[in-house]
Specification:
Radius of gyration: 18 Å
Number of helices: 13
Largest sheet: none
Helix content: 55-70%
Number of strands: 0
Structural class: mainly alpha
Number of domains: 2
Low-confidence stretches: none
Length: 210
């Protein structure tokens, strides 16, 4: 089997070599710790990570939407164009509205939506999920007052591994069911084609020449 950095470079040409090298050491260390320890499990896990992080290019959710983007993506929360235009290009205000009063977050005015926006390689989102990850990873509640920790490479990887294990995604990976894995992560099938693209690219490059 090829070294992980070679597999990732071939499967994700839009990922920078610097980012691949940065994350490779933590992936090699932490995947086995969390039971992501077979080729099939790792293929599913890495395909989802590459999609969720834009090929390791970001570890914090980009909420910088235009009015059109808000109406298309978050129309439920911006029912009129006037409201969308009022919030457009203000990432903190957008997150506070979209994520208010759910996932353990308080109201829009508390700032919880922005504070606990998606972070890590599988976007941990919402106060409840930050708390669960914090207790699982550190045995305390530090992520509630230092959520930006999940933007550090080691913890960006570990939070993704923790999420994977906590949501029993190995079982779905063992069934080789990328649709079910995607639904468990995304709540739907957004980006399924991109996830499948990475999955097949990883499969092609696991063995032999890259």
């Amino acid at each position: 089997m090829n070294p992980l950095n070679e597999i990732l470079r071939a499967a994700a040409p839009n990922a920078t070599l610097k980012n691949i090298i940065t994350y490779e050491q933590y992936l090699n260390e932490l995947m086995p710790k969390y039971g992501i320890d077979t080729t099939l499990r790792q293929r599913h896990f890495l395909a989802q990570l590459l999609h969720e992080s834009g090929a390791f290019n970001y570890v914090s959710e980009n909420m910088n939407y235009s009015a059109d983007g808000l109406l298309k993506t978050f129309g439920k929360y911006f029912p009129t164009r006037a409201e969308a235009e009022h919030y457009a290009r203000q990432p903190d205000k957008i997150a506070n509205r979209v994520y208010a009063n759910r996932m353990g977050n308080g109201s829009e005015s508390t700032g919880d939506g922005w504070r606990y926006r998606g972070r890590g390689l599988i976007q941990t989102t919402g106060k409840d999920n930050y708390l669960m990850a914090s207790k699982g990873m550190f045995g305390d509640e530090r992520l509630l007052w230092m959520p930006e920790i999940l933007e550090q490479p080691e913890y960006a990887v570990e939070s993704a591994c923790f999420f994977w294990k906590a949501n029993n995604l190995n079982a779905l990976a063992d069934r080789d069911d990328i649709v079910a894995v995607t639904r468990r992560i995304n709540g739907g099938t957004n980006g399924l084609n991109d996830r499948q693209k990475y999955y097949h690219a990883l499969y092609r490059n696991e063995y032999g020449n890259v």
